[in-house]
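Ticket #433: bound-state structure for glutamic acid.
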Amino acid sequence: MSDSKSLSSHLWDFSDLYRNAVLQLEEAATTMRLDPNIAERLKVPKRALIVSVPIRLDDGTIKVFEGYRVQHNMTLGPGKGGIRFHPEVNLSEVAGLAMLMTFKCSLVGLPLGGAKGGIRVDPSQLSRQEAQALTRRYTSEINMIIGPDKDIPAPDVGTDGQHMAWMMDTFSQEKGFAVPGVVTGKPIEIGGSLGRAESTGRGVVYTIQHAAKHLAAIGKPAVKLDGSTTVSVHGFGKVGAVAALEIYHLGAKVVAVSDVSGGIYNKNGLNIPDVLKHVSRNKVLAGYPEAETISNEDLLALPVDVLIPAAIDGVITEKNVSRVKAKIIAEGANGPITTDALKVLEERGAFIIPDVLCNAGGVIVSYFEWVQGMQNFFWSENEVNAKLAEVMENAFRKVIEIQQSYRCGMKTAALIAGVDRLNRAMLLRGLFP
Ligand code: GLU
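RESOLUTION: The complex was predicted; output attached.
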């Protein structure tokens, strides 16, 4: 018994992200008194595929990259989750991210399971042709486990709609007909959904609005999301840039944003539309004239009302958490706060909007895209946004109800919300054979 347990944990648990995901699950399981058989089952993924992805580089040489697709749980429906291109991606991290997708999809009520994929590559070093070859060969290598009814990839860190278009085309070429439902986050022209590209950032801001209302309702100092509220955004990418723009349009003062080139800070508030123009011209934030520079580390320590870590996992850790002063921390990225750091933040009364709730807008609109594609009937952007807002509001309310009835932290409450639905489904379906 104990042998098989240690064997399975050795295979997966070498990354901090995976360990943190398991710790969060354990905390939720203890708090909700989850059936221990279900808890054990959820600590390990259902299936994982490791593939070698050889491509010819522009200089004529052949390089082999390592790729993964992990399906954590598919009780509620096909696997769902993004494909990450990052130099440090590994099997364990992808497995941890797949686990978070399971809880995220369950929490927001989608008929989807949790999966994740990745290629260990620095996408900034690839030409367009190399990126295309890598994406196509990877798709071909994992094609036996993906499909509209099996597992549906989407963009994640380092990938976007163009990668999804290549994936859709490769899968379709191999089938002999167009299969748009194999991926979501596609460009509109080939079956994407209006509002998908902005959905994660938009959802982040919806949850911040709900958090502000909730804090006022329980008598905490008001965060009004007007000019009196300061915001900093770590990671000015697909999620962070949209969140910054949305919260700027609400009237809040976005004082700092950052990317790989470092951060920019203006105590009077940055003009986000202008910052976006600078980035579209120069690719990075560095050199933006109307601001001082600030390091990524110092940005996290600003005394702001709202901090949105929207870059990558493990940015707020036990090492820097004592410097973090924000009142509301909205986890735009997956796993930006480690479990140790989370405890410290919760003890000092910070309000955490957990990743599985905060950034669920992306997968929610991915689901809408999949549904629209299956019906060949596409919705207006207003319709997409209204439905997104409704799903996110229900999920937020559910998490608050659980947080209040168990008197636990928001992270644990969000996990309980996800695990509870899944638990009931797993018990109903039973164990095969
Ligand atoms: N990569 C996103 C996430 O982590 C979106 C996944 C999806 O749309 O399937 O939630």
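RESOLUTION NOTES: The domain at 199-358 is CATH 3.40.50.720 (Rossmann fold).
TICKET STATUS: resolved
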